[in-house]
Design a protein that fits this description.
mainly alpha, two-stranded antiparallel ribbon, about 80% helix, about 450 residues, Growth Hormone, Chain: A, globular
């Protein structure tokens, strides 16, 4: 019998510790950025705010469908919301490069909260019409033109260059945790209190980000150099991307995928209502399934030490394959299972693409590069949203989802050929900016 303090007991404890070391190492790598106080606060605030955002997305899509019963209108509303990002994205990135990111975020969160509150009031007073949803969506888009590149590039200021990849992955995990919680809660709110409640809760959720921004220790931030206010700054951003194939082909892949594949606010309500004859709860189930897969994909990516063009291409291809499979599923249950896989590979692609651009850009150019990423990812919706909505309404929702899958497979082929021709093989998370001599093309 082994007693406490005996050599045998000590040896057993030591052996158990040695066995746990690999697992603890993975956990430490996966959640490394959360050890930084400012980022930890930001992560909590974002998680709360993003839940509200997904509630609003569920509520807005269902409101438009209830008002119009049209997939095309659904696509046009989405297009209106993201049109400013497509047209004004470079200017938003330039503003992000030239001003304090923390102060910019204070302003964008306050304005977004007011807009969400206004939409809730319009709905609850029964005065809302489709053109009002268009207008408020357009105003959200104007704010997001600055907000998105600013949020993306604020991450390195909180965690430093060595943890950018991990922080980006955790951000993606927070977004997709919200994708699980937000739609589920949103569907419950719609069923219990009406669609206006989604907008009111979203308005309140913006306070979380405002509070955590106020609580941050500014002396612990790592401000990036601000771009000089000279002529030709926008043109310089485009030329910078064109001169670096790693950035250019990553963005080109996102343009193709963002235009036709990432139109879930259009395709999922259509497939829920017209293919499976469901309701808002069915729509939420599909979004939740995607969110579950995305959380798993985000956590897996957060634990990785490296990223590479090969992984980016593979994730795009698998994203496309799973979308095609989801399009042909016979029941809502099987479709939900397929969308778990869709979420898994989609978030891996998004995280790897985001990390590649963040690490591959010089700090003073990062805002403009990430604005182009936002244009490719979100700004492409004004083009893709109406197209996918028209396909969903007149050809069928399954075809709308399937077209997105084919687009992702094509993007993988285009990116693979481009990376191969330009000689890019591996980009590690510790890679210096391209301007410092790494992976120049």
């Amino acid at each position: 019998m082994t007693v406490l303090g005996s050599p045998g007991r000590f040896t057993t404890i030591q052996a158990q510790r040695e066995e746990l070391k690999p697992m603890l190492s993975v956990i430490n790598r996966t959640f490394a950025s959360l050890l930084i106080r400012n980022y930890r606060l930001y992560f909590i605030g974002q998680a709360i705010s993003l839940c509200g955002t997904w509630m609003q997305m569920i509520g807005q899509s269902w409101l438009v469908l209830r008002l119009t019963h049209s997939g095309t209108q659904l696509g046009l509303v989405a297009a209106c919301q993201f049109l400013p990002i497509l047209v004004l994205g470079p200017w938003g990135g330039l503003i992000s490069d030239q001003f304090s990111k923390r102060k910019l975020l204070f302003g964008t969160q306050i304005i977004c909260g007011i807009l969400a509150l206004a939409l809730g009031i319009l709905v609850v007073t029964n005065t809302v019409t489709v053109w009002m949803v268009y207008l408020i969506g357009f105003m959200f888009g104007l704010v997001n033109t600055v907000d998105i590149p600013t949020r993306q590039t604020f991450v390195p200021e909180m965690v430093g260059a060595d943890r950018v990849g991990n922080a980006v992955s955790l951000n993606s995990t927070a977004m997709n945790l919200a994708r699980v919680v937000g739609p589920a809660v949103g569907a419950g709110l719609i069923a219990t209190f009406g669609v206006a409640s989604c907008f009111f809760v979203n308005a309140i959720s913006f306070l979380a980000v405002i509070i955590v921004l106020a609580l941050m220790r500014t002396e612990e931030l790592h401000p990036t150099p601000r771009a000089q206010r000279t002529k030709g700054q926008l043109k310089l951003g485009f030329l910078y991307v064109v001169a670096h194939p790693l950035l250019a082909y990553t963005l080109l892949m996102m343009v193709i995928i963002g235009t036709l594949a990432y139109e879930f606010t259009v395709t999922l309500p259509l497939i829920a209502e017209f293919t499976f004859h469901g309701n808002a709860e069915s729509y939420a189930h599909l979004f939740t399934a995607m969110g579950i897969g995305s959380i798993a994909g985000g956590l897996m990516t957060a634990g990785r030490r490296t990223t590479s063009p090969q992984l980016l291409v593979a994730s795009a291809g698998l994203f496309g394959v799973t979308l095609v499979l989801a399009a042909v599923m016979p029941t809502l249950l099987f479709a939900s299972i397929a969308f778990v896989a869709v979420g898994f590979f989609s978030i891996i692609f998004l995280t790897l693409g985001n990390t590649t651009l963040q690490l591959g850009s010089a700090p003073e150019m990062r805002g403009r590069v990430m604005a182009l990423w936002a244009m490719a990812f979100i700004g492409s919706t004004p083009i893709g949203g109406p197209i996918v909505g028209w396909i969903g309404e007149f050809v069928g929702p399954r075809w709308a989802v399937g077209v997105g899958g084919i687009a992702a497979i094509i993007a993988a082929i285009v990116g693979g050929v481009g990376f191969w021709r330009s000689g890019h093989l591996t980009l590690t998370r510790n890679t210096k900016p391209l301007d410092e001599g790494n992976n120049q093309g």
